[in-house]
Amino acid sequence: MLDLGRSLIASVARMPNALALVDGDVRLSYEAWFSQISALVAGLSDMGLTRGDRILVAMQNNRAAASLHWACQMAGVITVPVNWRSTADEIGFFIENSAARALVFDKSSAEAIAEAPQAVSLPRITYGTSAEGALDYDEIVAASAPDASPQAGADDWSIMLYTSGTTARPKGVPRRHRTERASTVAHIAQNLMPMRDATLGVMPLYHTMGVRSLLAMTLLNGTFVCLPRFNSAVALRLIAEERIGSLYLVPTLYHDLLDHPDFAQTDLSSVKRLGFAGASMTDGLLQRVDRAFRPELFVNHFGSSEIYTFSIEQNAVAKPGSAGKAALNQDLRIVEMGSGDPEAVVKRGSEGEIIATLAGDEAFEGYFQNPAANAKALKDGWYFTGDCGHFDEDGDLFVTGRVDDMIITGGENVSPLEVESCLSMHEAVAECAVVGLPDERWGKIVVAFVKKRGEVTEEDLADYCRTTTLANYKRPKKFVFVTELPKSPVGKLLRRDLVSGNYTPNTAAAQAALKEKTHDRSAI
Q1: What is the largest CA-CA distance in the chain?
Q2: pLDDT digit string, tens, across residues 104-124
Q3: Against a cut of 0.90, is the pTM above it?
Q4: Which domains are present in the chain?
Q5: CA 7: distance to chain centroid?
Q6: Which of 317, 314, 316 is nearest to 328 (CA)?
């Protein structure tokens, strides 16, 4: 299999004049972009980096981050992209854990980098900011350099992503060139992306969704349109101006786009393919997005950093909530929750833990220097995802949540996602999240946290639930109105914050403050 460096060279040779990258006023053809990437490769070498070294990258989605990713693939340097919002303590952990030998950052992470003791002695590159002793990105790419030659092979490491670390320190997920390329080819095929496509580069490049968008566009001689930080108004303008064909977002961002006042006036005719991942999409939002865009393809992608694709549903609206069937490079099973046994397969229709084969071309081989995590998640050639779900009578997968999120109330299992999808159909519910809170009698009770779209009371929602197909034990016993639902930087719902009380109730004062906010969001 081709490594990623040779894949880039092939794209440059195929269509050198095609538009590769857009970032504000910067518009680069493949030929011009490769020239800058080659200069970066030379710059990495001048810093003393060689094949197999790791470089920490803490940047927003801009031309420097995209170019550096490809320069590392050419140079055989392993890129370690991390959240640009990381604290100094987190930066220090990433440097130590990955054994990074250099770092690259922009203004968004400059303060944390400056405060991290582990970063002081490392060679560095800055973009849009400055630091003592650092090289300047723009000066590097402006220098003359010969065309770079690939230094890595398909079996070399390409990237090390870090998991979100919701309960402990994040885990490093190293991935090889061949697994990154296989994931990208599958992404292209399963999303029916054409040559010369264009996508909005909004999902962060420290997340597998963002990396996949970048690589897919390059392999297709398409255009990667950078959006450094999500802003609904800017995103809508770029969709129209750059004729975005494939839009790939988390559900939160679709919600924000639809709610922006510019949405109704935006020309969306170029958008033919929609995809979402990273979180479930409620039935209500699914229908709203479909009515608004009328896409030719609407894909629900279920996967992870460890194994990019578990399953694909190419017609998400046809069977709401379905994650479809196993992807091109996958085989899935549902096993008894807590069994840790890949042979403990449950009968169709029964709920259990979803596991995925490690034999697929997209699979990682284990967490970086973390035997305890490997022992928990990797067993007899299978990856235990920590997600629970079931196969229906058609063999389609339904993901019902995280194993740890399942609510056990009065001895019955309740899936938060099922309750959330039901509530999302109420016209006055903008967003909702369901968790289990401790109760002396029931063990836990089902509690719904609701962000309003219109006037509604707890009694209204309780009455509404009684008219639905929700079983009595699944109906929320309590409703809490909030100004916003807590989410991670990539739009994943943070249920643990709701459980711990880390939210803002929708009081009169809070609602007044909320009305003063603009529609521009900063979710990414």
Answers
A1: 73
A2: 999 999 999 999 999 999 999
A3: no
A4: 406-515 (3.30.300.30)
A5: 23
A6: 314
CA distance 163 to 207: 9
Tokens of 415: 């899936």
Per-residue 3-state assignment (H helix, E strand, C coil) for 354-379: EEEECCCCCECCCCCCCHHHHHHHEE
Token couple for 31? 């030929």
Residue 366's alpha-carbon distances to 4, 54, 382, in angstroms, are 21, 18, 11
| Helix or strand run (H / E) with residue 299 | strand 297-302
Residue pLDDT, tens place only, 262-294: 999 999 999 999 999 977 788 888 999 999 999
Q: Tell me how far apart the terminal alpha carbons of the chain are, to the nearest angstrom.
A: 33
- Whose CA is closest to 128, among 79, 193, 60? 60
d(CA 271, CA 254): 13
User: How far is 165 from 89, CA to CA, in rounded Å?
Assistant: 14
Burial class (CB in 10 A: 0-12, 13-18, 19+), 66: buried
Helix (H, G, I), strand (E, B) or coil at 300: strand
The whole-angstrom separation of Cα 51 and Cα 190 is: 32
